[in-house]
Amino acid sequence: MTTAETPESPRRTQADRRARTRSALLEAAARGLSEYGYANLVLERVASEAGYTRGALYHLFANKEDLALAVVKWVEETWNAEVRHLADAAPDPVAALIALARGHAVYCRREVARVMLTLRVEFTGQSHPVGRAISDIGEEFIAHCAALISAGRSSGAIPAGPPPQETAHAYLGVVEAVGIHLAGQAPYDTELAERAVRGLLGLPPADQDGQAGG
């Protein structure tokens, strides 16, 4: 180790500890929000379940709203890393929509995946920063899916049907429903997610031999 590297090591170690603490608190908060909702979330319980003190939590998050917003952002980032990239790498709109459905089913095998739906239901009809953050994510997802549906129809890969925006809303509902009701039931969760999406889009069933595993 050089002299120039020595002063950086404590800073790197401190940053690593902070990142680990933050990650543990976010995951504990996501579980708590999924189970109890925002109104009934107790920060002391979140800190305890993460293995930290209440002071450690308040060192990183100003209050419950700040923590919940961080959880929403964290879930969005993990979902994008684990699911959205599958669609981005797909060769065509149909493959992208199916990849999103199957990838979301896999993501829902994690208990923290329920947090977004739980919070969206809790904040429906309310003007609250957490509700608005979730609404913005949902609107972006629907716009993305509507664009894929429109592109698929333009190429002839997806047959004509209701407007892309309405179809995208239905797509979101189907994907969420499968993720909720079949969470963790592999491989049926991914298989039925694909079947449901194909039916919604008016696509023929996949060749069973050609299906990718979830």
Give me a quick take on this structure.
The protein has 214 residues and is an all-alpha fold.
Features:
Tetracycline Repressor, domain 2; DNA-binding; DNA binding; transcription regulation; transcription; disordered N terminus; mainly alpha
Protein model, in words:
This is TetR family transcriptional regulator. Keywords: DNA-binding, Transcription, Transcription regulation. It comes from Streptomyces chattanoogensis. Residues 8-18 have a biased composition (Basic and acidic residues). It is a single chain. The chain is an all-alpha fold and 214 residues long. It has a domain at 63-210: Tetracycline Repressor, domain 2 (Orthogonal Bundle). It is built from nine helices and no strands. Helix 1 crosses helix 6, helix 4 (64-88) runs parallel beside helix 7 and helix 7 (129-155) crosses helix 8 (164-181). The longest helix has 29 residues, at 8-36. The model is unreliable at 1-5 and 209-214 (pLDDT under 50).
